[in-house]
Amino acid sequence: PSAAGQIAAIAQPELRALPLYLSYFGTASPHYYGIQYIGIAGNIPTRPSDRRYPDKPGVLAISATNLQGLYLTPNDRKVLASFHLMEPGGPKPIGVLGGTIYLYLVGPPK
Questions:
Q1: Distance in angstroms (rounded) separating the CA atoms of residues 51 and 85
Q2: Which has more pLDDT, 59 or 82?
Q3: Has this prediction a pTM greater than 0.85?
Q4: How many other CB atoms are there within 10 angstroms of residue 85's CB atom?
Q5: In degrees rounded to 5, what are phi and psi of residue 13?
Q6: Of 11, 45, 81, 82, which residue is the least packed, with the fewest Cβ within 10 Å?
Q7: 47: closest CA among 39, 58, 55, 37?
C-alpha cells in the first residue's frame, strides 16, 4: 500500500485519538484514505501556509525519505530538525509502518 494507506492502518486506538502531524514523500492524498492530519513538512498535498508546528501532543508520522531530509526545502529541513529525530540520544520511534513510515510521540517545540 501507499504511504498514506499505511498511515491509515494505525491500529492503536490511543494513537488515533491524538492529532496526526504528517510529513511524507508521496503523491497519494491522505484525505483519500480518510486520514485527518496536520501537514508539517514535505511533499504532502497541503499549502505551505497550512503547515504548522505541533501545538499540543500528538503523533508525528514521517516517511523515511523525509526523515533523511531528501527532497525537502531548507525551511522544511529546519522544521523537522526541531524534533531532533536524527540526533544521537534523540527520540526513538514508537512504531514503523511498512518499513517506511516512522511514528513518534511529539509535543510543542521547546
A1: 19
A2: 59
A3: no
A4: 17
A5: -60, -35
A6: 11
A7: 39
Query: What sections of 48-105 are H helices per DSSP?
Result: 64-67, 74-81
Unique residue bearing C-alpha cell 498514506? 4
- Quick check: helix, strand or coil at residue 13? helix
25 grid coordinates: 514523500
How many Å separate Cα 57 from the centre of its chain?
Answer: 13
Query: How high does pLDDT run on average in the chain?
Result: 77
Please report the beta strands in the chain, taking only residues with DSSP state E, as ranges in sequence order: 20-23, 38-39, 58-63, 95-97, 101-106
Contact 57, 94 (CB under 8 A): no
**Which long-range contacts does 49-57 make (Cβ < 8 Å, 24+ apart)?**
51/79, 53/79, 53/82, 53/108, 53/109, 54/19, 54/21, 54/106, 54/107, 54/108, 54/109, 55/108, 56/19, 56/107, 56/108, 57/18, 57/19, 57/105, 57/106, 57/107
Instruction: Give the Cα separation of 32 and 86 in Å (integer).
Output: 30
The torsion angles phi and psi of 59, rounded to 5 degrees, stand at -110, 125
